[in-house]
Every structure is written in C-alpha cells, then in structure tokens.
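Work Package 3 (structural annotation) set out to generate three-dimensional models for the target panel prioritized at the project kickoff. During this period the team completed the workflow that converts sequence records into discrete structure tokens, so that structures can be stored uniformly alongside our sequence database. As a representative example, we reproduce one entry of 361 residues exactly as it appears in the project archive.
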Amino acid sequence: MPDNGLIQGSYGARPSIIVGGTQQPALSDGLQELLVEETTAGLSRCEATFANWGPKGNSADFLYFDRQLFDFGKSLQITMGAGPASGVVFQGRVMGMEGRYLRSRPPELLVLAEDRLQDLRLTRRTRTFENLSDSDLFQSVASQYGLQTNIAVSGPTYRVLAQINQSDLAFLRERARSIDAELWIDGSTLNVQSRNQRETDDVTLTFGEGLMEFSVLADIAGQASGFVVCGWDVLGKRALKYRATSTILAGELNGDMAGATVMTSAIGSHDQQIVHDLPFSAQEAQALAESEYRRAARRFVTGTGVAEGDARLRVGTKLTLQATGTMFDGNYYVTQVRHLFDGVNGYRTQFAVERTGIATS
C-alpha cells in the first residue's frame, strides 16, 4: 500500500505514547514519523522516529542514547485518533534502535518494536506432536511462552503433526492456514479464531467522507468452481476425495454473487486439484479443501485505500464502503492496516481489503 503523500482530510492529532507503563508527552511532541502495521499473518510492528537532540542537563546533547527511557525489551504502547475513531493500535516491546544523523535536520532515533508473537519466531525446531487437534496444539505452544489463550477453532484430531525446521510462529501460521483460522496477539493473549468468530468493530466509510482514496479489483482469474482434495484413509484403508464448493460461503456473501458464479457464467466451470498435501482422514480432507476454497474465493474482490486516521481500522474489521458504485459498494474484510503519522500529513490510515462477491445487479 503506497504512501501517497499529502492526503486531504487527514488531521494532525498526535499519537499518545506509553513507554514502560508511563505516559510520555515529550515523546508525542518529539515524534517525527510513525508507522504501525498489522496483517492477517499476525505479528504487528511499529517504527517510530523521534527527534534526538535537545537540552539535557546544562547543555545540548543526545536525548535517548543513555537508554533510560528507551531500552531493549521495554514495553511500548501507541494510541491514535480522536473521538470514536481513537484507540490503541500497538502494544509490544522495543526490539531495535537506530541512530540517524542527517544533513538536513537534527539527529533522530528510530525505535523498532514488535508484539509478543516475536518470541515465537526466535528458535527453529524439529519435533512431532501425536494424537492432538490444532486447538490442543495452539494451547500447548502458547503455554511454553506463558501466554494466555483465546482459541475458538474446530478441526480433526491428527495422529501426527510434524514441525520440521520451523519457528514456532511459522508452524502455528501454517496450522492456522490449514483450518481457515487467523492468529494474532493482544498484549499477552494468543488469539486463534476463524473470520466469522473474530470480534472487531463494524466501520462504515463513504468516499469523500472519511474514505479519501480507494482502488478495487474484481478478478475471476483465480476463481474455481471447486477445490478437490484426494488422500488415503489410513484406518479405513480406502481412498479419500472431497470437493469444496461455494456452498461454504453462505455466511460471507451477504447476498452478493460469488466469484465462482461470475466465472462460470463468463467462461465456464473448472475445479482446482490440491496436490501439495495428503490427508489421512475424511475430516482432514474436508478441512483442507474448504480452507483452500475460502482463501481463493476471498481474493475475488481486493482493494486498497486511504482513510482519515481511524484506529478502529484493524485487521478483521468489517468495513462497509459507500459511494463507490453499485458494483463495489458493500461489505469488506480488512486484511492489512498501516497507521501512519508525520508532521506534514498528520494521521491517516492505509488499508487492504478483500471480499467474496459483488452486487448481483
């Protein structure tokens, strides 16, 4: 999502910054630039640039290199927005600090922070888990890091799950993807839920009123009539085959026409064969086929936009867009967000969305 420079309608309300549990008004005043980003893959990140030269004691000096305020591992919280559009957009820890010495302005400090999911990517492992479900797996890994859990996923029990030269974060992302779930962290709570269970704000934006820019594409090239999975039932000693179709999208279409329906009408029907995984039970085959079908179907309509700064826009937000025309007005799911602030453009929010269908007329 490109930063398009000056956005008409953005406002300059400065973010509120808490370091180590203490509010820091001087940091808000000295903030030069800020980026907070989150995606459906989890692991939010923050980049904050501060002026790093000024009065200190009886002279002028670098302000933050003594590590009294900013230090590695220290907690960082960012609140942005005003009124109903305000909220916490980042909670994490300082992981990096970069000194910047520029010809055109005084020295600066760039602070890099990530949320607690960063812990899960530090070490690669090879290990196996036996006779457990994905829900059990998420609980087990979270407990190793002292994380609380909010897990609401369904799926089969597996005889064996293998983690092969992967970080725990990569492994959990892979498992979440296989059962059509998303994972993210709030403070010290690991959340794993499907989209229809994820609790977020419902936000409505109108082009020219809150929604400043929007680009959207409906594309049938990646759509399919069905996703077919074949495998082998180890216990029943028989071949497995499962075909997922648009019937599983009933709760997401909201009266829209699915991409597969548009494709079939335009160029005919075709199926996709999933060959990179081999399920060993009927439940595994169904979960895999349905997960892959939903992922492709949700990419039928994709868009990116720029809004006036709005902390309610988070990954998972149910976003209703208006004044974009009959074809594209309607409900979208937010998949990526960047909250941006600087002294020229103020606070604005860039976002990416996707949708399973378009209006029927």
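The helical segments are 25-30, 134-144, 168-178, 250-253, 259-267, 282-297.
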